[in-house]
Amino acid sequence: MKLSTKFATGFVALGTITALVGCAATASETAPSTAVAAQADSVSIEDAWVKSAEEGMSAAFGILSTDGAEVTVISASTAASPMIELHETVAGDDGQMMMQEKDGGFVVSKVEMILAPGGDHLMLMGLTAPLLAGDTVGFELTMEDGSIFSFDAPVKDYSGANETYNGDESVDIETDSASGSADDRGSDTRSGSADEGAPDQ
Amino acid sequence: MTQSDTNDALPGLNRRRFLWGGAATGVGAATAALIGSSWRDASSTAAAGHAEDARSAIHGALTVPFYGARQAGIDTPAQSHTVITAVDLVQVQTAEQVVRLMRLLTDDAARLTQGAAALADPEPELAIVPARLTVTFGFGERIVRLAGDNSAPSWLRPLPAFSIDDLDEDQCGGDLLIHVASEDLVTVSHAQRMLLKDTRSFGQVRWSTEGFRRAFGSEEASVTMRNLFGQVDGTANPRLGSDDLETVVWDSSASPAWLFNGTSMVIRKIAMDLDTWDELDRPGREESVGRYLTNGAPLTGHNEKDEPDFEKTTPLGFPVIAEFAHTRRARSSVPGEKIFRRAYNYNTTPTGGPVSDAGLLFLSYQADVDRQFVPLQQRLDELDLLNQWTTPIGSAVFAIPPGCAEGGFIGDSLFAI
Ligand code: HEM
Ligand SMILES: [Cu+2]
């Protein structure tokens, strides 16, 4: 049997929505990104991935680099979460690591810009649907000149990346692993408890 | 598929690319930020230090290609360590879920086998010594049927019961087989963990067994392995690269189309009673198999590879290779009743009285389990002196899908998009 078309088209649809969202978000503010030497053209990403989550928040990671001059990512978008921010992780007043929006965006120079748990990351603030392990999520990064760099990232279960969010409300990244099956089990893994225990037997 | 070992990754290596990503390799971003540049510098110094003796001694950078028409880890010269795990995909009810899982696992395997960390790998330093790491996947019947009722070959089911069996259900069957092997046990452990973490959302481990052979470099790679009875085990196997092996393992003419370049794997965990074996003296031990212990030669010959002469009799008129000898019983006169064995030893912590809990992780590959394996096991079930000291305690049959190309996933010929 072929893979159910439902899956195949769902896969494509997600990407398409992403593209539309990306355009809508930037077209009004900036010139078309077809300009010569658009900043996005020099950008690439390696090893991109997103943490799986049932709902709420999640984060995306990867290694950004540029083969041209320094560029700055000023915003991001994805169909998976209408609200997405560029985050950094810092020590709070109490010494606890917490994350917050990064002033000035992500500066990508010839030295790789690493997005990693415990460091800078793309913060998905309000998932529209569960992010299931093995799915692919499309992202668009908007550069200073308005050009857009798009990439896909697979969803992985991951127990870390549990820093507290230092925003308007204190919310943790959802850490449940998500299979999309009928009997998804709940998880008691919460911020600060990166539980890497054995799978439930 | 060519299983060429490559050693060009080590000397004069651009260590940064090797460790920190490139087209084919990449370290998970996970720890990159946390480790920082001092670690990078230290690792490049270490690489330079190793460069001189790389060819003579250091073999951690040896890799076996992952992508290809056939999965690696079958006609790959056997590595010294393996861990074989069967996962019950209890949460998987649809083909779509299988595809998601196999995409993840394929990506993990593709990276790890080439010495790169898996995505989101919290211990990327453990990934950089592949030491001929291979990861081979197999599907149980239930998973294959998720692709359609007609997709399963008729042999994909539990083996028939044999009188010699004393099976523990918890060491039998399973939906997904993950067979990891490398010359380095640390590498095996890490790969195993990264792969199993990606199965958590889809199911749970059913059973897992470690196996070993002699360490890499202890003796020439061409030397036939020994099992824990001290026997030379594997002599009459089809040679790697031979036409014989091609037919025995890869002849898919009678299989469903998706199994082209795939095969089947039978796993029998067979306990070997080393304590009662100890009671048997050398001549008796040699008689039980029909081969000498010194070099594995048949009792009718001198060299390991000499053909056994099953007609030859002693002056008293008895066959030199006894009727009950394992070698005689395991050789069928019916053409095609042949298998390719790739066994590992196991030796786990004994409980209770005996000082050993040891045996053979009997792995065999054949195009058709029912046509090739089952008749042999039936013959051995009827008569085989070795049965006195051996007891099958685990049993499983898996379909081994073909390999995949970059961008594809293991199982894509079955769950094609
Ligand atoms: C613990 C269990 C077993 C032990 C210790 C064992 C050991 C051996 C040994 C020492 C040989 C002779 C050398 C060689 O050709 O490899 C041999 C041959 C063989 N064994 Fe086993 N074996 C075991 C189980 C099995 C099982 C379960 C099967 C298949 C159902 C099997 C099939 C064969 C075959 C096909 C040969 C080659 C026979 C020939 O054509 O000469 N063995 N085994
Ligand atoms: Cu954040």
Features of the shown structure:
heterodimer; A: 201 residues; mainly beta; 11-stranded mixed beta sheet; 11% helix; disordered C terminus; B: 417 residues; 5-stranded antiparallel beta sheet; 4-stranded antiparallel beta sheet; 11 helices; globular; binds copper (II) ion
List the helices and strands and how they pair.
The complex is a heterodimer of chains A (201) and B (417).
Chain A: H1 5-27, E1 43-51, E2 58-66, E3 71-77, E4 84-91, E5 97-101, E6 106-108, E7 113-115, E8 121-124, E9 136-143, E10 148-156, E11 164-165
Chain B: H1 15-20, H2 29-35, H3 37-51, E1 81-88, H4 95-113, E2 134-139, H5 141-145, E3 176-182, H6 185-197, E4 204-212, H7 243-250, E5 263-272, H8 274-278, H9 282-289, H10 326-330, E6 340-341, E7 344-348, E8 357-366, H11 369-382, E9 390-400
What report would you give on this structure?
The complex is a heterodimer of chains A (201) and B (417). Chain A has 201 residues and is mainly β. Chain A is built from 1 helix and 11 strands, in the order αβββββββββββ. In chain A, a hairpin with a 6-residue loop joins β1 and β2. Chain B is of the alpha+beta class. In chain B, 25% of the residues lie in helices and 16% in strands. The two termini of chain B are 24 Å apart. The structure holds protoporphyrin IX containing FE and copper (II) ion. Residues 227, 229, 231-236, 268, 270, 272, 289, 291, 296, 326-327, 330-331, 339, 360, 362, 376-377, 380, 386, 390 of chain B line the site of protoporphyrin IX containing FE.
Shape of chain B: globular
Please give the alpha-carbon distance between the first and last residues of chain A.
Answer: 32 Å
The unreliable regions of chain B are 1-55
Q: Report the major sheet of chain A.
A: 11 strands, mixed
Estimated structural class of chain A? mainly beta
Oligomer: heterodimer
Q: Tell how many strands the DSSP assignment of chain A holds.
A: 11
Query: Helicity of chain A, in percent?
Result: 10-25%
Taking all Cα atoms into account, the compactness measure Rg of chain B is 22 Å
Q: Nearest-angstrom radius of gyration of chain A?
A: 17 Å
What shape does the CA trace of chain A take?
globular
- Write down the secondary-structure element order of chain A: HEEEEEEEEEEE
